[in-house]
Structures are given as structure tokens and as C-alpha cells.
Please model this.
Amino acid sequence: MRAQEKSHEKVIFEYSHPGRGATDQWPQELPAAATADLPQQLLRTRRPLLPEVSELETVRHFTRLSHLNFSIDTHFYPLGSCTMKYNPKACNQYAMLPEFLGRHPLAPESHGQGFLACMYELQEMLKEVTGMQGVALSPMAGAHGEFAGVAMIRAYHRSRGDLARNEIIVPEAAHGTNPATATMCGCVVREIPVDDEGDIRLDALRAAVGPNTAGIMLTNPSTLGVFERRIEEVARIVHTAGGLLYYDGANLNAILGKVRPGDMGFDVIHMNLHKTFSTPHGGGGPGAGAVGVSARLRPFLPIPLVGMEEGNRYRWLAEKDLPQSIGRLSGFMGNAGVLLRAYIYMRMLGREGMSQVGEYATLNANYLLSRLKNAGFDAAYPSRRASHEFIITLKRQARELDVTTMDFAKRLLDHGFHAPTTYFPLLVPECLLIEPTETESKDILDAFVSAMVQIQQEAEQEPERVTSAPHTMPVRRLDDVRAAKQLDLRWKPTA
Amino acid sequence: MAFIPHTPADVEAMLSAIGVSSIEQLFDEIPASLRVKSLDGVPVGLNEMQIGRLMSERARADGRPLCFIGAGAYEHHIPSAVWAITTRGEFYSAYTPYQAEASQGTLQLIYEYQSMMASLTAMDVSNASLYDGASAVAEASLMAVRANRKSKSLRVLVPRAVNPLYRRVAVATAGNQGLRFEDVPYSPDRGVTPVDALKKYEGEDITALVIQQPNFFGQLEDVDALTDWAHARGIFVIAVVNPTSLALLRPPGEWGSNGKGADIVVGDGQPLGVPLSSGGPYFGFMTTRMEYVRQMPGRIVGRTVDLSGRDGFTLTLQAREQHIRRAKATSNICTNQGLLVTAATIYMSLMGPAGLERTAAASHSRARELVVALTAVKGVRRAFAGPFFHESVLLFDRPVAPILTSLAGQGILGGLDLAELYPELGYALLVCATETKTQSDINSYVTALGEAVQAVRAA
Model:
């Protein structure tokens, strides 16, 4: 209880006192005449409700809030499908050099050759590691990259007068963003099943493709944590039917430096730079969802791109250079500062580091899977190798002990581990999707196994200890139903 | 290398536990024909000392010019505390707060952010942010289609005085779903959207009208008249606003003669503590009225109680989102721009209502001084009459591009040449000044401009 008392932090408005403020940060007060030219009826009459607090109060409040978070810097965070690897400090430090921070997005190319060189080289490096022929950096998240990818597929078919192709095929285990994206692009979604070993059922795929097929969206390794072994056959079936292959790069970390989506036959891919290339997740963003394409889709890439001219001069490529482009997806060129971090990361790792990522991410996942299996946990796909992640199912525990995956997840927090992804993918009951990443040591993985074993013992001996977890967090389990029914979405003074 | 901690002994022990003889064997399910042969296109790795040197050289090449460009991205003072705290690992390296008990810091911060944005825009509720201002306009248009039950047309009126890049992004994003964005002209003498220009849409089914305040030219629109016109016809008002200006200008929640206000408010949050950084990462904000909250895209945080009855924060209304509704979601968006929201929330706390008001007033005042000083140069005049916030369009008697090139050579970025975006304006330049500019900066610009005009004339 005392830990909880200590960790409660007031809402910042509750520190507010009229007339207080971080005055050292403010410009000088101007006489009223400074704004007298503005028409009275356009002026604000009541001040907004912002806190009036000192600089120290502000610093203390937000530092305390930070203490209530789990993060990669403080905790093992094996969140499946999210690739929570170490975010090197150098990537942040050198992306935040004052010249980079101060550079206006519309500054002339004469005052951007350093930045543009980084962006151009990033495009080239991403092409190389994915085996694609063109890369655009502007999409601002994975889902945004997906949108760009499917929009390019549609634009490609339309440019050929192939107007009937509006169906996107999605395996049932796909990320929720895949079907949502297809809808946003004006397409219809067709889901197809996978077999008992996690591979796509080719008979179902053959039955699904046809003259309406725009393309298929795949993650490989799939969200089931296994490599789609018949990917070449899948590519043949879809291409023969006139469709294109979309690669969801959520799991690129598993195969970085080992296999390239372009070589597997994919026509378009998005990369989650905040996963594979270690830019920060930032509590939910900003991400970066660069897209790569095969030669036939290059004219449709979203703008702007960075091009290189004679004399190693870099310049923006925009509407005039790519008249068939799907257009602009951001006000300027996407999350530029995130792209700089990805560039720094790739340059630090270099070509040899790229393949080590795939290798050690896979080693860690398979080691953790083996240890958990030996400790009595059930793998969802026991006959398969793990990719960079794998699925454990706790349906036996749920049935026999009435202790669910959610209970295990919450109890892991008490052990100082962020929970793996829970209840995703939807088709494996009571599942934990576990992704350790390559930057974790064997010691941490061993400690995680010990925690899982302890929780299992607790579940057998005093299950309520697990079902009422967490016990050491700033809050206990929250009332989500109340949150959605009695909406409290902003602070209001109690007058 | 690659920040991998394994010792050879670790690797051996791990392989043995798995029951394989090499790491290579773990890839035996992948067809051999697909394996990567080489990655020669990626250079060899650099250590931190080497990358530090390279990046410092690249940064130096970009220089630190004196910048008078605005056009959707604005240089403001950013207190040191903002990014010192934002880049703390506990914020920087956390993920979306799915495990609420282990993410109360991020969740409470977003709740505070939502409170501040709702109040700043005078609306009921805010989401946890969108990608940027441009994509927020696209999302707002899609939301208007869902929420405006009186309209079936998917037609959205976008004045030409709205940021043209926003318009392009809206078309690229929402055009696939059948939305049509139609231009509304601006008045050539005042650079604002006259209600008269909307007359031709009388009696037609229109879903929403976009109103930007201040508009792309920096000019102040007659927001009451435009809002009244739209609301009288069952048309949604999507307000696009600059958050700094809202410390001074009437918030969209109070637009219209009856004070009913806009229906959806969006904008780019960059001016709130986010560096220019070549265009991103920024964040888009969105607020709306309570009756439309279930149509809003993006993450939303709510306050609730835990099993012991203590206050706590959690993601809520998730039934709108892609991981639940899949193909029927309000949007495919599954992140917010969390780190930027962190910076903006700290920024707004440090500025408070008084500091933000001073920032807005100082920006306005500096911009006026700039315009007065530049229009004193021969051959330079204002394009439009009427009030502006912190940027304005100037007309030259000769092409702007060579003048800007000459200024850039002197370390001054003189503004945005409007030749491509608004060719009908002639030789037009959009200039901006904020509280960061001093009298001496303005003097430097004026002096350099005099010389640049001379040089161009001589050439």
C-alpha cells in the first residue's frame, strides 16, 4: 500500500496557483497597443485553462510521471510484434544537433545538403536490406506506410485500366491495421485461413484469387511467429492471378540481413523504422513507416523523395518528377527527425550488424521458447522454429486453474517485466506473443523464465494472488467499463 | 556490434538448450534459394565516435541561417526543460500504454494534454493526437462524413486560402474513399474567404466547410460569418487553427454569432515546443464536441478507478479502433505522436495562459514590425489589406526566387516564394516572424534585402 501512496501523482492542474508561472521562459510583456490592430470580435475573451505552475513544479511533476512508466530503459519489455529493442542514445543525441533541429522544412536545398544526404543514403540502405527498387520515407507510422502501399497497388491497377481489382486478401492472423487500411483505400477485404502449422492454406488462396484481386497483405514471418515456408508458391499464385504482394514489415527484425522481401517476390513493403531500426516508440509514437517498391510501382511512390544529381547535389523530388505519385501524405516529408535516428542506427550497425540483428533476435526467441517449453508451458506451434517471436498458449491453465493469460500478464508486472502481447493473434486462445529482441542478454531471458515458473506455481497454489495482480504497480486493475461509460476525458475544476 | 550483449559462452549455452549446433540452423525453414547473398549497399559499421563526427559534419553543412519562413512550421522559443524531460528513457522508450498499470505516466500525461487542448480550442474533448496538421485535416474530413448525418454528399469545401499542402494531403488520403475537396476562392484584395464565394453552393448537399484561422496567408478570416453560413445549411465546420494564436484569438469552440462553435477542430501542434526539424516529427491535434466523440479517430485516454477505488488512467472507447473493429474501424491509425504530445504538454505547462498569450502577442508584434520594415524597401508592398497574425504576403516588382537565393547566400531565409503555389499573385513572398526574432534580426533582413534587390537589378 505504501508504494502506491508514494507513486500517486496529482493532476498538474491541482498544483496551479493564479499568477504563478515559469516566467523566465516568457517573452517580455508588451503594451496593449501591440495587439490593438486586431479586430475586437476576433479576440479571445476568456483565458484557456492551462496550469499556472513554476518551472520546478513542472519538472518535478513530469519527472514523477515518468517514474510511473515501464520502458525499455528501465524494464525488459518483450512485447510481441513491437520489437522493443534498445534505442541507442547516440541516435537521439546526433539527430538533435542544433542545425538539424533548427532546419525549416521549406529551407532551400542549399541549406539542407547535410540532411538530404542522410535521407538519400537512408533510402539507398533500405533498398539494399529489403531488396526493393525504390523507397519513400514520408509515411509517419506503420499504418500510414500500409496506407501508402495499398494506395500504390490501387494506383498501379488503375493506371493499367484494370479497374475491377478492389479486393485485398488478408490471412486471418493479420494485424488489425491490414483490413482497416484496405477499407481506408476503398478496397474490400477477404480473409483466408492458415493451417495447423501456421502456413497459409494454398487451396483457400487459390479459391480466393481472381480478376478482382488487387493484392494480398502478408507479414513474414507471420504474426504467428513462424516463417511462411511456401512464400514462393504464394507469390506465384497471386502474381498469376494479376494481383500484387504487400509485405507488412512489422516482423522485419526476424529476417534482417538473412532474407529480403524483394527476393521473396513482394511488390511493395512498409518498414516500421521504430521497430527494426530502433527509433523510439515514445509512448506510442512518432513512428516512421517508410515504403519500398519493386520497379513497376516506383512511379507511384508518395512524395517527396530525395534525389541525387551530378556533383553529389541532393534535391527534393516532388509532383513534377513523379506525376503518377499517389501524392503527399504529410505536410512536409514525414517524421524527419525519426528518419535521422534510423539513419544513424543503420550507419552504426553497418552491413555486418544488419545480419547480426536477425541472427540474435532469432537466437533469443528460440532460446526463450525452448526454456519455456522445458518448464512446462505450451507452444502454439510446437513443431516450428520460432522466428524473432513466438506464441505460448495458456488455455490449459485457464481451463484447469481458472488463471488466464491476462492474469499472468498482470503478475509479470509485479516481477518487473512488461507483459508480452496478450490475446493477439486472435486465433490462438489465451495466448502470449513474446518477442525478446537481440539486445537482451541471456541473464534477462533466464530471469523471465524463472518469473513465469513462479507465477505458474502461484497459479497452482494460491491462484488469487495471480488473479488479483498486479500488487506493486501505481494502480491495481482499472475499471475499463466505467472508463467507457462514464467518460472523464479532461480535467475540470471542482467548483 | 549491433548492441548485442552475448558472449561466446552465452551463445554456446543457448544453442545447446535449443538443441542446434549453430545459429544458422535456426533459419532452416527458410528456402535456401531466398537467403541473402550480400549487403554490399550498406556501408561498414561506425562506432559512436565516428558517427558523431560524421553527423556533426552533416549538420554543419546545413548551417544555422536566420529564418523568416513560416507557412505551417514556426520557430518558437523552447524551454530547456521540455526536451530534457521528453527524452527521459521512461517516456522516450515506452510503448503505447496497453498495460495501463505499467503506463500511468504516459496515460496521465495524455489526459492532461487532452484537458489543455480541449480548453485551448474551447471544445469538449480531445484525442491523444494524430500524425500532423495536414493528415489531421484529412481525418477530420472523414470524421465529418461519419458524424454529419444530414449530408450524404462526401463534398468538402476547402478555401484556397487554406494551407495548400494540407489540401493535397487531404486529397491523397481521403480521395480513395470517395471524398471530393472543392476549392473556394479568396478575395484578391484582402486574402480571406468571402461569404459571397460560398453563394454558389446554396441549396446543395455539402458535408463540411474547412476554415483556417489565421489562414495560409496569415490573414484573419471572418470566422463568425463563415461558421454561420455553414451551420445554417447543416454543413459541418472543420476549424484549422494555430495553437499559439489561440492564446490571443477567439477559439473555434466560440465561433459563430450564436457561439455554437466549430464541430471539429484540428491543427498542427508543432508551435507548442516542437523544433522545426525539417518538417517532423510534429503532431496533429483534434478536438470535438462530446456528441461526436465516438466518431473521432485516434487514441483517447480516460480517467477511471481501480479495484481499490483509486483514480487511474486508461485508453478508452477502443471499440472505435482497428485492433478491435478491423475493417470497420474509424481509421487505420494505431499510434499517436506520443513523444511530441509529451513535449507539448510540458511546454503548455511552462507557458501557462499568460506565457502563451505573451508569445502570441510578441509574435504578432514582431511580424508587424517586419512587414513595416520590409515594405519600406522600394518595390515591396503588402499583397492584402486587413489584419494578420504572425505572417503576411508581400508583393515584389520582380521575381522573388533570385532575391531569396541572394539572401540565402547571406545566411537569411527570407520567406516562402509563392510562385508555384499561387502563381496568380505575381511575385509574392510569404514572410513570418515570431517572438524569437529581435529588432536587430529584422534590421539584418532589411539591409540584406536592400542589397539583394540592388544585386538582382544590376544583374
Summary: Chain B has two domains: 66-76+352-458, 80-346. The CA atoms of residues 377 and 447 of chain B lie 9 Å apart. Chain B has a mean pLDDT of 96. Residues 66-76+352-458 of chain B form a domain with the Aspartate Aminotransferase, domain 1 fold (CATH 3.90.1150.10).
